[in-house]
Write a structure and sequence with these properties.
With 810 residues, the chain is α/β, with parallel strands linked by helices. 31% of the residues lie in helices and 23% in strands.
Length: 810
């Protein structure tokens, strides 16, 4: 078959005026519909065909594309295209390709067509076996948020981008025409003038040997694995493909330093930038306690720090779970920093990204269940996805998986058989063939048998339509359900989501809709939100409604809505010093987790902090600017707002020791500012914030050397690490009685290690109760009563809880 080069394709695209007709065989596929969008952006006529209609073809038709359902020679001959493009999924004996060959029409592969458009601008490729769709989408979205307005081509729809592909700056002109698009344009090796402010981000596919078609300015390589062995002869051939791609990257080559094979392949290259949890990485990741999501579509927010050669760049948050997503996000951040963007602006851009379709996509959530759809179809992807979703629940993880392609199933069956260990229930569907012929003995039943041979229970479901009912019958309150695979299992997932939505009480749906209608899209509004993951104890029930306002005005509007509907409300910080009962919280839970409430500004020896700012972030910012006296805040796992409410303390210091003034909102929505001298402050309490909402505070320290501050901070850290448990806890459970510290009392009573269910009095510090996976709030409450009763009976001391206990009993 004729194979055009990218330069030849570009020549064809500019041969006719005002537009060229391009025929796309298989236009409904994820890569092909992206090409169609790019060509339409450039003003070309797009015609195409596919076997079935889908949302992508309908969207293209609305943009002016002419699309046929089914393939026939008459269609392509009638269109008289200047160029025919096909994907690897199209068999070579396709009637339209055969007709094009007979008429000697120019024919190009999808990757060559994409490379032709890609090389008109400054290109950035995201490559790797796993995670590149989400990563490329994140990079394109971040560049948009950074006001760069990039072009992009992503392998799946990123809802925040609107389309899977977009060509920005369609005024690029060929060098051959003698016209120059912009005086700042520079010569490019692929026959086009390239404007230096234009970036083009693509997800570069390696599956069919076309990775080498791309010559990017920068690249991100996420991983390399034994995949696509239906095309590549062996793993060595795969590595060779990535080595060639690395040689073609002119600028920064960012790679994951946690992938040993990538380290071997890429680390010694002069343009290599390593990123990962690996302590030797140039950009090193330090994971943090999960934080609060800031967007409606998000189901989780993961926090992490990034360090560059010993310097902390900042804390970043991500609307996706799992260390693989953290690693991939860190690669995006590292590249953007290398490109010259400020870390603070990058953090805001990354923090607003909510993912691509079918990548940890949450289809349903209520007080009983959460349902996810994910595209993972390789053993490593399966393990990473299960690990990430398992971290979201203290209950069960139910998984329905559809193997993808007979060749992949045959090559990787042994690895697949042990990939589902974290699933509490497992269903296996029949293999999704894609365009492959069946291989005797390779099927869903054999797949299930291989898993069963490892000792794991599994059920084979030969008819996909039966899967939703079987999974639904097995579901129990608290379950997280995952439909996983690259085939049509997504239809079963969406069917189940519709059924579950039909079970949701209509009154709650209406209240949620009414509240959301009064707020901006930047505000998070969710029903039946699991709160256990939002507390440091990791226990507790759900909130009827959970809201994260995107501004002070929207916070006021939420308070107004609550008054109108007679809905109770409560403020939730970062969940330390808090125990939520298993029945959850009725009404509205408000969290000031949005970035607008989390700013920390330095003004001389003062810090102006939002209520949502982490105390650790405030302490680190003070250290950075040589402000002493705030080091003790580093060890308190809470927010500024929570610390004001509780007058939180550590290492012999209290929050209000360093407060100069506070800013707060009353329950009518009015804002007030008061100096600390006008506030009533007590041990572990500030009554002002029992009936007002903290918005922020001015903290005052004193100027000192960074060395002295760092020394003090390390002393606090060392004391905390040696005297406090590392398991999930709420901090000190009891206030200190007058006679002796509560921890010493409980230790003397011999209660260290005492258990109720999955809760235990810490054997490190007796005033801490720690939890294990599966713990319930009931366990902690019962253990609190055990300790209180023993102190009362043995010493006549009435212990008073320091931790705040809220919510309903089951």
């Amino acid at each position: 078959m004729i194979r055009l080069t990218a330069e030849e394709v570009n020549a064809i695209l500019h041969r006719a005026e005002p537009a060229v007709t391009v025929y796309l065989v298989g236009i409904g596929g994820s890569g092909m519909n992206g090409l169609a969008n790019l060509l339409l952006d450039l003003g070309h006529q797009v015609v195409g065909s596919d076997l079935v209609e889908n949302d992508e073809t309908r969207n293209l038709r609305s943009r002016g594309a002419k699309i046929f359902v089914g393939h026939s020679a008459a269609q392509i001959l009638g269109a008289q295209p200047s160029l025919v493009v096909y994907s690897s999924a199209i068999p070579k004996d396709n009637v339209e390709l055969e007709a094009a060959l007979q008429r000697q029409m120019p024919i190009a592969r999808r990757a060559v067509m994409l490379a032709a458009l890609f090389h008109r601008q400054r290109g950035i490729c995201v490559a790797g076996m796993h995670g590149k769709t989400t990563t490329a989408g994140m990079l394109a979205f971040a560049l948009e948020q950074l006001k760069v307005q990039p072009s992009y081509a992503i392998g799946a729809l990123v809802p925040q981008l609107g389309r899977p592909a977009h060509f920005g700056g369609a005024d690029q002109l060929p060098v051959e025409s003698g016209l120059v698009a912009n005086e700042s344009a520079t010569r490019h090796g692929h026959g086009y003038e390239v404007r230096p402010e234009r970036w083009f981000v693509i997800e570069a596919d390696e599956s069919d040997g076309t990775l080498r078609e791309f010559h990017p300015e920068h690249a991100i390589v996420l991983n390399v694995d034994e995949e696509h062995l239906d095309y590549f002869a062996n793993f060595e051939a795969i590595c060779g493909e990535f080595q060639q791609f690395a040689e073609q990257t002119r600028g920064q080559l960012v790679f994951c330093a946690d992938d040993p094979q990538l380290v071997t392949l890429l680390a010694r290259r002069p343009n290599a930038v390593s990123v990962g949890f690996n302590p030797l990485a140039m950009y090193r990741i330090e994971p943090k306690i999960p934080a609060t999501p800031r967007g409606k579509a998000a189901s989780v927010l993961t926090a992490f720090e990034l360090w560059h050669e010993g310097e902390r760049l900042g804390e970043f948050t991500l609307h996706l779970a799992g260390e693989k997503n953290v690693s991939n996000a860190a690669c995006v951040i590292a590249l953007l920093i290398e490109m010259g963007f400020p870390a603070e602006e990058i953090a805001d851009a990354i923090g607003a990204f909510k993912g691509a379709l079918r990548r940890q996509q949450e289809l349903f959530s209520d007080e009983n269940f959460r349902l996810f759809d994910d595209y993972g179809h390789h053993p490593r992807e399966v393990q990473a996805t299960l690990r990430a979703l398992k971290s979201l629940t203290t209950g069960r993880l139910l998984v329905a998986f559809q193997p993808h392609r007979y060749t992949r199933t045959r090559h990787l069956l042994r690895q697949f058989s042990t990939s589902f260990a974290m699933a509490d229930r497992l269903w296996i569907a029949e293999v999704y063939a894609a365009n492959e012929p069946e291989i005797p003995g390779v099927n869903g039943m054999a797949f299930a048998d291989a898993v069963r041979a490892t000792g794991q229970a599994v059920e084979f479901v030969p008819v996909l339509a039966d899967l939703p009912a079987l999974v639904r019958n097995a579901m129990q309150p608290g379950d997280v359900v995952l439909f996983l695979g690259a085939g049509d299992i997504t239809h079963a997932a969406h069917l189940m989501a519709r059924r579950l939505r039909d079970e949701t009480p209509p009154s709650q749906k209406q209240t949620l809709a009414d509240l959301a209608a009064r707020l901006s899209p930047n505000t998070t509004v969710r029903a039946n939100e699991q709160l256990a993951k939002r507390t440091t104890l990791r226990v507790g029930g759900k909130a009827d409604f959970y809201v994260e306002p995107a501004s002070e005005a929207e916070l006021s509007e939420i308070l107004k809505f609550s008054r109108e509907r007679a809905l109770p409300f409560m403020l939730l910080g970062r969940g330390s010093n808090l125990l939520i009962r298993d029945g959850g919280i009725r009404g509205v839970v408000i969290s000031l987790g949005h970035a607008c409430f989390s700013e920390v500004q330095v003004q001389g020896e003062r810090l102006r902090c939002g209520a949502g700012a982490r105390l650790k972030a405030a302490a680190n910012e003070a250290k950075k600017h040589g402000i002493a006296g705030l080091e003790f805040l580093e060890g308190i796992p809470g927010s500024v707002g929570g610390a004001l409410r509780m007058n939180a303390g550590a290492m012999g210091s209290w929050t209000f020791d360093v407060i100069e003034s506070v800013r707060f909102m009353d329950y009518e929505g009015q804002i007030h500012i008061k100096p600390v001298s006008q506030l009533d402050v007590a041990y572990r309490s500030c009554p002002t914030f029992q009936s007002n909402i903290a918005l922020g505070a001015v903290l005052k320290g004193r100027m000192a050397s960074r060395e002295d501050i760092l020394k003090r901070m390390k002393e606090c850290q060392q004391k905390r690490w040696t005297s406090q448990p590392q398991n999930p806890s709420a901090g000190c459970i009891f206030k200190n009685p007058k006679l002796l510290p509560a921890g010493k009392l409980i230790d003397e009573l011999g209660l260290k290690g005492r258990r109720v269910g999955c809760a235990m009095v810490s054997d490190v510090h007796a005033n801490f109760i720690v939890t294990e996976p599966g713990a319930k709030a009931w366990d902690v409450l019962q253990l609190i009563e055990v300790v209180k009763q023993r102190a009362r009976e043995a010493r006549g001391i009435e212990l008073e809880t320091e931790v705040e206990i809220v919510g309903e009993d089951v």
